[in-house]
Amino acid sequence: MPDQLLDPATLGDLLRVASADDYDRWHDQIRRTGGCSDPIHLTGWTLTKDKTTGETLHHYSTESEPGGRLRLACGNRRASRCPSCAFTYAGDTYHLIRAGLAGNDRRGIPATVRDHPRVFATLTAPSFGPVHNRPDRGVCRCGTRHLADAPALGTALDPTTYDYAGAVLFNNHAGNLWQRFTTRLRREIAARAGMSQRELKEAARLSYGKVAEFQKRGALHFHAVIRIDGPDGPDTPPPAWATVDVLTDAIRAAAAHSYTSVSVPSVEDEPARTFRWGTQLDVRPVKAFGDGSDITEQAVASYVAKYATKAAENTGTLDRRIGEISELDRHQVPDHTRRLIEACKHLDPLYPDRRLWAWAHMLGFRGHFSSKSRRYSTTLGELRQARADFRAAQEREALGLDDVEPDTVLVLTDWQYAGHGHTPGESALAATIARDLQHNRETAREALRDQSAEEREW
Fold first, then answer.
1. What integer pLDDT is reported at residue 453 of this predicted model?
2. Parts of the chain with a pLDDT under 50
3. Exposed, middle or buried by CB within 10 Å (0-12, 13-18, 19+), for 46?
4. How many contiguous H segments (helices) and E segments (strands) does the chain have?
5. Which domain of life is it from (predicted)?
6. Where are the strands (E) in 301-448, listed by range?
């Protein structure tokens, strides 16, 4: 049962659901969604027939389901919206990033990719004004040594001078800045190899996988795995001159180069701005197993996967589009975040093509939170398809159809959308199911870690 006390109406609805004759089937449906907090409801049927004989091999209809509906996972990547579906998305992102670091034969990425130069780089936003922080030594500029969870962290020391407009415009153009960075990076690598960009394409390929993260001050930065491959991607060895040192030096040069910038023209009372990356650039080599000082493949993949399910919620903003400024009062949005959102509202008519108000809940950012170059590794679509194929094979086996040739089978379906979500009682029960599944996953993960530790000792 949920840890918190339930109000009488929710408790009554919970008892209604739990005492229903079809509760076990409802529980099975929700468990199959992973405990999804906002499942999609479908009504309809599917009919499987033998093409040759016309024999009905299987028939399914939602008429026999609880409420006459089939419930499917919503698939939302945001942990603030659906923790269970976000867990699945994070798992897929983890395997996608790790495949580009350690290889995955089933996805066509050889283990020799471990021998390619690869680093984990973090590119940060510039300063828009001093903020409350926790320096390694000493105290914040306000004279206070803040606790790790202090609400003031990341907020402006002087809101009247902080460049809120510049902060949201930087977020809005961060994707363009990343594109210019990768273009310059290829030029820097080519220069260090003593060749032209055209010659570089014949000798090596640059690949990356990245994720965006919001700092507490509401400014965006990118974490990226960057790798040099041979000319045909991860299954070809990089040239001898391609080393981690060459890649690291090229990244630093590309991030600091004047080409790696985005200019925003002046409009009415807003001055012209030129955005570049911040001075806090971090580039570290990725080790296969680690030596106590460098980050490992697993650590990098876990880090990227963690932020793939987040957005700007850690700043106190909303996880959906904002209709009116008055919503900020109802949801008690912090003052620093509110000022960033208000800046989006003010700037929206000045830069109509940037759609700042539509993305005010993301503090101006409108790009993909996680993305990769084409040849970095597998894709999220391929991982989802592999999971769907596995479940389809399980279903065929359960129905006794695994020995039937697919070409001899005709499948007819008719599905209709019938809503989404839970009643209050269902929501409480689904949360309990999700927690049980999470506990089982954590237990299994701990067992695998212990087994791996014992194998290393041997």
1. 56
2. 1-2
3. middle
4. 11, 12
5. Bacteria
6. 370-372, 409-420
Q: Contact 105/69 with Cβ under 8 angstroms?
A: no
pTM listed for this prediction: 0.85
Tally Cβ neighbours within 10 Å of residue 43: 18
The single residue listed with the structure tokens 């977020």 is 171
In angstroms, the CA 363 to CA 318 distance is 10
pLDDT of residue 397: 83
Residue at 88: amino acid letter = T
Nearest to 6 by CA among 436, 427, 434, 438: 427
In the block, which residue shows the tokens 């990244």? 251
CA separation (Å) from 173 to 131, 210, 268, 282?
Answer: 22, 16, 19, 21
- Tell me if 206 sits within 8 A of 185, measured CB to CB: yes
Read off the tokens for 9: 């109406």
Strand bridging mode 118-123 / 282-287: antiparallel
Q: Which residue intervals of 20-151 are DSSP H helices?
A: 23-32, 83-102
Asked if residue 154 lies in contact with residue 336, where contact means CB atoms within 8 angstroms, the answer is yes
Instruction: Tell me the domain boundaries of the chain.
Output: 8-69+381-457, 83-128+163-378
Give CA–CA dist 79/23, Å, rounded: 27
Q: At what angle do helices 164-193 and 335-347 cross, to 10 degrees?
A: 80
Beta strands in 156-294 (DSSP E): 205-214, 220-229, 262-264, 273-275, 282-287
